[in-house]
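Listing S7. Sequence submitted for prediction.
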Amino acid sequence: MRRSCDEKAGRAEGFHLLTDGVAFHDETSIGTAIEFAQRADTILYSIRFSDAIKVYRPVRAAILSAAKEHGKEGLARMARETGGGTLEVSKRKSIEEIYGQIEDELRNQYSIGYTPEHPGKPGYHKIKLSVKGRNLVVTAREGYYTR
């Protein structure tokens, strides 16, 4: 993830993260991956593939189940903190439908600029965007990095 964001920095193109959400022996933490994505101005949409766990070995099944849940939470956090979304392929929702949903969201989004009156210290700054209309949906990053 870090290398992908480093390579993307400075280019106006996106990328998709297709995964089951389970990472073994990953050297990069989720926090670091999120930071690199935010610094590269990248919106992450995670598309999760997850098969049912077959219980041949109960202990191994329990470990895999816990790893999958941890991965699911990590994917949701990455998407939320970069202004994207988390979707899951299932019998009810195909990969084609998911890509269509992402295309619709990207095609119908607005970009809002923000310049603080008093620039703060370098680093991460939290922001909150809200709307008055009840039928409006806001998907936004939780903050930004100063340069």
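Caption to Listing S7: primary sequence and predicted structure tokens for the chain studied. The mean pLDDT is 77. The radius of gyration is 17 Å.
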